[in-house]
Amino acid sequence: MVPSLVFSTIILVILLTDNCRVSGVLHPPGSLPTTICDLPYCSCDQKVYCRCTEPMQIQNELFHSQGIRFDVGAVNPEALNNSFIKLRKQIGLKFLEDCVNAATSSKTSVIYKDLKYDLNFINEWPSINDLTWIIKARGELISLNYKRYETSASSLCSLCNLSQQEDIYHFIAICPILKEFRVKWLKKAVLTREELINYLNGADFKALINYCKTAWQYRYFLVQEFNY
To answer: According to the lineage, what is the superkingdom (predicted)?
Structure first.
């Protein structure tokens, strides 16, 4: 039995075991429910075949919702395994699609609607620290004064006197206090919005990482030292 089938079977056992105790009914030998009821941790009477109707119905509805044909009475391990592999893949794709739709329709994000979501940078950066900065920049997760989930504190930049919201755009593209880092790594004193999006979409991730890392360390030093 291949590992993925073992994992899938364990999940089914967890879902079905509780119902085994109260919903045991006669069921033809050789089916999947019979195999589950023969397992040592099933509390059913070994002479009674458990159908476990409610969780099996939920499972069948899940397969049906993804357009996958699933025969609960199948005894072919390869067929079962292929069904579960297809189900996991389709659920994963649907989850990713829902996440992208939610991000691109965000009314509070500065950049989400302009990001590319088919990049493969996670597999291209061996350094977890570097990868963290890419994710923080693209996800607007760098600790700045502007936070979408917090409205009580001031969101204005505490470094400069432009009276602008300190969001990811201001931090990377605008703030004059961080100009020297911008010139060094991004080759410009101020970035346009389009230029910022290009960096976030992979135009030069190394330059973006170096800027974010050094600029944020300097920002942290100023905040701690001078209580901005």
So the answer is: Eukaryota
**Interatomic CA distance for residues 54 and 52, integer angstroms:** 6
18 close to 40: Cβ distance less than 8 angstroms: no
Please tell me the pTM assigned to this model: 0.63
Q: Confirm if 145 and 156 have CB atoms less than 8 A apart.
A: yes
Compute the average pLDDT of residues 200-205. Answer: 95
50: helix, strand or coil: strand
CA 185 from centroid of its chain's CA atoms: 29
Q: Which two structure tokens, joined as six digits, stand for 175?
A: 């703030």
What stretch of H or E contains 38? none
CA distance 188 to 108: 27
Give the Å distances, CA to CA, from 78 to 27, 35, 172, 196: 23, 16, 52, 49
Helix-helix angle 3-20:53-65, to 10 degrees: 140
Please report the sign of the dihedral spanned by the C-alpha atoms of residue 169, residue 172, residue 176, residue 177. positive
- The amino acid at residue 157 is C
Model pLDDT for residues 137-188, shown as the tens digit of each residue:
999 999 999 988 777 678 999 999 999 999 999 999 999 999 999 999 999 9
> Residues near 58 by Cβ (< 8 Å), separated by ≥ 6?
15
Q: Please return the burial class of 136, using the count of CB atoms within 10 Å of its CB with bins 0-12, 13-18 and 19+.
A: middle
Q: Provide the 3-class DSSP secondary structure of residue 167.
A: coil
Interatomic CA distance for residues 176 and 100, integer angstroms? 33
